[in-house]
Design brief:
Layout lengths: L2 E4 L1 H14 L5 E10 L2 E7 L15 H14 L7 E9 L9 H12 L7 E9 L5 E9 L2 E10 L13 H16 L1
Parallel strand pairs: 1-3, 1-7, 4-5
Antiparallel strand pairs: 2-3, 2-4, 5-6, 6-7
Helix pairs in contact: 3-4
The protein binds zinc ion (ZN).
């Protein structure tokens, strides 16, 4: 079981950016800290405000690479503790669940030749009606089914997830992806 811990500072940054973006999708990369025991803290995240529409988000890898380089330098290049954790983006108009495209993209990233990570996290977020953050996180591994991770505020309480757990649907999507990739 993997747990993604969101410190109050990062949650506040997310809320601010989501409010500002309105109905446009935004996203970026997650800079993480391995706390041990399967718990990963999101220390910071990059925010790409352009490149997204109402129902899509196109990453600009250059900007996120620069963000990660700075993060790694700042944390003393202690890669086993501080490293790239994965990706995040918002679904202002849809539930905070990965879409089929999201699953394919993330599985593609982890399967890339030369990808040093053992797994990559995708955090999908949206602003709930009361202004709180709704989020789900999933971990993608090489040639293995996707697993759902718990998302928690670092103060302890779980972050609200959308009403339905999408895991069955996701597994099905993953199987479809894997069949396609194996051809
Ligand atoms: Zn998405």
């Amino acid at each position: 079981m993997i747990e993604i811990a969101l410190p109050a500072k990062v949650a506040a940054k997310l809320r601010r950016e989501l409010r500002r973006a309105g109905d446009r999708e935004i996203g970026g990369v997650l800079a993480g800290e391995d706390l041990g025991g399967g718990i990963f803290r999101v220390v910071d995240l990059s925010v790409q405000r352009s490149g997204g529409g109402v129902a899509h988000f196109v990453r600009d890898p250059g900007a996120h690479r620069r963000f990660m380089r700075r993060f790694l330098a700042r944390t003393g290049s202690d890669y086993t503790r501080f490293n790239y954790l994965g990706e995040w983006h918002s679904h202002p108009s849809f539930p905070a669940l990965p879409s089929g495209t999201d699953v394919r993209q993330m599985q593609g990233l982890i399967e890339e030749r030369g990808q040093p990570a053992n797994f990559l996290v995708l955090l999908v977020v949206k602003l709930g009606r009361g202004g709180e953050i709704e989020a789900t996180a999933h971990a993608f591994r090489r040639s293995a089914p996707v697993v759902q991770a718990r998302v928690a505020r670092e103060e302890g309480a779980a972050v609200q997830a959308p009403p339905k757990t999408p895991l069955e649907r996701l597994s099905w999507k993953w199987m479809a992806w894997h069949r396609e990739a194996a051809k």
